[in-house]
Design a protein that fits this description.
This is DUF4867 family protein. Pfam families: DUF4867. The protein is mainly β. It contains two helices and 13 strands.
């Protein structure tokens, strides 16, 4: 997988590719599908680029596996700390260094978003999720209490106003954490 990732771009902005055919043909796919996701169909993609800001937090109703191709910093929080009005205090976010070559499981109740690079460098991370996650919704959702946060399949998102993410609830309160400062 790491070898395949060397061929992926490292742009100045952040890009996310939910499913990459070359990554999905690598040897660890069967192991990930069987051991981590209990035989569910999975997608393997990547998130690459340059980033130092929090900008948003998302959660899924499933685990996500990340493999750091480069050193990355993840800004994480807990879904249980989301207030009833769908706000979240950014002071509760914690930063974690994930060294290159390390794979981690992000539980469904863990708030996360795009990784940050270390020391101003770009980052590359493999992202493994149940198939269809982060793809376009098929219908409008209005029945569940947190439906207004649902921005893609299996993706509930709370943004910071500074990020200007179209269609997202701007519920992150406090500083838009910037690791470059």
């Amino acid at each position: 997988m790491i070898k395949v990732m060397k061929q992926t771009p490292l742009p100045e902005e952040v890009i996310y590719v939910p499913s990459d055919n070359k990554l999905e043909k690598t040897e660890p796919v069967i192991d990930l599908k069987m051991r981590i996701f209990g035989e569910l169909p999975i997608q393997i993609g990547y998130c690459n680029g340059h980033n130092s800001k929090l900008n948003a937090l998302e959660y899924h109703r499933s685990s996500e596996v990340n493999v750091a191709v480069t050193d990355i910093i993840l800004l994480l929080g807990s879904e249980q700390d989301i207030a009833s009005d769908f706000t979240y205090e950014t002071s509760k976010v914690e930063a974690f260094l994930v060294p290159a070559g390390t794979g981690i499981e992000i539980y469904g109740t863990t708030l996360h978003y795009a990784p940050c690079g270390v020391d101003g460098n770009g980052f590359k991370a493999i992202v493994v999720l149940p198939q269809g996650t982060n793809t376009d919704l098929m219908t409008c959702h209005t029945k569940s209490y947190d439906d207004k946060l649902l921005t893609a399949k299996n993706k509930w998102l709370i943004a910071h106003e500074e990020a200007g993410i179209e269609g997202a609830v701007c519920g992150l309160k406090g500083e838009n954490i910037d690791l470059a400062k």
